[in-house]
Amino acid sequence: MPATEPSETGDDEATPPRRRAGLAVLGRLGIVFAVLALAIAGVWITSRVSTPTASPTTTEIPALQVQAADVQPGSSAPVSATVEGAPVATQQQPAQQPQQQSGGNLLGKWAGQVSDVTGIPARALMAYGNAELELRETQPKCRVSWATLAGIGRIESNHGQYGGAVLQDNGVPSKPIIGVPLDGTPGVRAIADTDRGRFDGDPTVDRAVGPMQFIPSTWAKWGGGYNPQQIDAAALAAAKYLCAGGRDMGSAQGWWAGVMSYNNSVEYGQKVFGLADSYAKAAQVVKVS
Description:
Helix content is 42%, strand content 0%. The chain has helices at 17-48, 106-118, 122-138, 146-157, 216-222, 231-242, 252-262, 266-283. The relative contact order is 0.17. It is globular. The protein is mainly alpha-helical and 289 residues long. The longest helix has 32 residues, at 17-48.
């Protein structure tokens, strides 16, 4: 919000002393209430959308170098590994703490064990696992897997850790993850600004944002008003995006169509395939009870 200009004051000598003292007290009280109101508003806005504060030039994220799998698009889908015995977060609150059950946080136990065998941060795994469980409840025919989301998350931001960022307990990286300017330079799409810099800090052109690297206009449709830097919200939005149109991510055709809709590149799809397949195979030894 732009700062307001100071209002002009009248002739101070024209105001009686007692009135001036009263106005001064009221003025001080008004400032206190204004500060409190701004603080409350700031807390609410931060819980919904945190506008990046770091310079985009220090957080730009090109595609990470990942080896592509030797597989033909549409020929098969990655090995499927599902989250078993873990609670699912509600759709209305994807961006805070995963739900607890009596007997402990089963999703947290699962994430810790899978982290040991895959190297994926447990906090990121909780987001990917929660997204799979949520879509299993709301769109059971989609069959999107946490492993596919993890494959995308690895390429897009190294699971929220790109550029030395640390994925915090609240699911937000320690510094905003922002993509390169989509300005039409060689190898880059040209996308004019759609969010006035609200999500990406750039009022001229758009940039992909957050651990799952959503373009602001796409996030506005799938993000549910949450902060794109928050990995629970980002993973859930990615799962919904992959499942759009009744797609079956458990089939070879559906899987490739979903991933190619995320990034229309055969090499990208092959990279996601290799990562998702390796993550799923590694996690097959994990049993949570």
